[in-house]
Design brief:
Number of strands: 0
Order of helices and strands: HHHHHHHHHHHHHHHHHHH
Largest sheet: none
Shape: globular
Radius of gyration: 21 Å
Low-confidence stretches: none
Distance between the termini: 54 Å
Strand content: under 5%
Helix content: over 70%
Mean pLDDT: 86
Length: 376
């Protein structure tokens, strides 16, 4: 009985955001009343299907070892600890642009811990992991598929690709420079890697996964229909690697569903429409940034999307809002969980350092927003 209770408590702690969103959706529906048309229009099926396809294909590429292969090839150019740290950090920075921030962290954070431990450089683990997390969260802001909030905003507001990239590029460039500066204090002790045997990665199956990934990109760019791409991706994966269906983040999909319903319900109230518009309008950047610190940037995006008149301000606000607290971007919790499993972990010290580093980046970007509001 005690074991079952502990398991239930753990499940609740791990899914508190989903449970809260579910409760909000149910309570708001009961209070306002069920309206089938409103609920159906609220469930943005195109976004949900696109997220599902991307998660399915990226899970397959991850399992195939494509990202590990990329690391091993890149490590051939590493000669010292500073270049090694930058390798891990900038792999997260660039890879997250294509496979999302959480996937890149799942791959490269444990790899960094393992390599630094083998090299007896545990003193670098906290700094590298924190900068990896910032790199993933900020690198992923560049593209529509880099993180869920970007994909939502790109689809919901029908952004053009060049307009989207021109909005996010300044943030990415500044963060790139800041990451270079923040790693300059790492020593340049020589490192030697043992020769690592590589099995064949690029098999016919992997090439198939890559083709499916391209189809998803074409769907994001509105070249292909999401319905057609979903049928192709789902049927192909069912035939060649159905195990990947278990690795899809259904929790994130359900979180979107509950938030869609909740936002649609409260948005239907005249008083909410008036007050929310007055509160959010002209302050989208700071409202979205602040709300992200409390409920994380994905829920903040969905909740504010119905009330904003400036999609770019919302986009920049929730992306920059991924910096700050550990829950500002839920992907950051991935790094924290991996770190707490290391020998001699100091969770409170990690949290202090994490907050300190994040606030430095946040301060620079918010300052630039005041100085150059057209770009930041």
């Amino acid at each position: 009985m005690q074991s079952a209770l502990n398991h239930l408590v753990k499940r609740f702690q791990n899914n508190i955001d989903l449970i809260v969103a579910c409760v909000l959706a149910i309570v708001s529906t009961c209070v306002i009343g069920f309206d089938q048309d409103r609920i159906e229009s609220a469930l943005n099926l195109k976004i949900l299907l696109l997220l599902f396809c991307l998660m399915l294909v990226v899970a397959a590429l991850r399992k195939a070892g494509v990202l590990n292969y990329l690391y091993l090839k890149s490590s051939l150019f590493v000669k010292d600890t500073r270049s090694l740290a930058r390798l891990f950090i900038f792999l997260n920075f660039f890879v997250s642009m294509l496979v999302t921030n959480d996937v890149s962290l799942i791959i490269f954070v444990p790899l960094a811990i393992d390599v630094l431990t083998k090299l007896k450089r545990q003193d670098l683990i906290i700094q590298v992991l924190i900068l990896q997390t910032i790199a993933a969260n900020m690198g992923s802001t560049l593209t529509p598929i880099g993180n869920p909030q970007n994909l939502f905003i790109y689809t919901y507001f029908k952004y053009e690709l060049l307009s989207f990239l021109s909005a996010t590029l300044p943030i990415v460039l500044v963060c790139f420079v800041l990451l270079i500066i923040m790693t300059h204090n790492i020593d340049r002790a020589k490192v030697d890697f043992e020769e690592q045997a590589q099995s064949k990665v690029f098999t016919p199956k992997v090439y198939t996964f890559m083709v499916l990934f391209v189809l998803c990109i074409l769907c994001v760019l509105r070249v292909l229909s999401i319905e057609i791409v979903t049928v192709i991706v789902a049927s192909t994966m069912m035939l060649i690697d159905r195990e990947q269906f278990k690795r899809v983040d259904y929790k994130l999909l359900m979180l979107f569903v509950f938030l869609f319903v909740f936002v649609a319900n409260i948005s239907s109230l005249p008083i909410v429409q008036e007050k929310a518009l007055d509160f959010v309008q002209d302050y989208e950047y700071f409202v979205s940034l602040t709300l992200s610190q409390i409920i994380s940037n994905v829920p903040a995006t969905v909740m504010l999307s119905s009330f904003t008149s400036d999609p770019k301000a919302l986009l920049l606000g929730v992306d920059v809002g991924g910096l700050g607290t550990i829950i500002a971007s839920m992907a950051s919790l991935i790094t924290f969980k991996f770190y707490t499993r290391t020998d001699g972990a100091k969770p409170l010290y990690f949290m202090r350092k994490f907050t300190k580093y994040n606030l430095k980046f946040l301060l620079v970007l918010v300052t630039l927003h005041f100085v150059l509001p057209s770009f930041f």
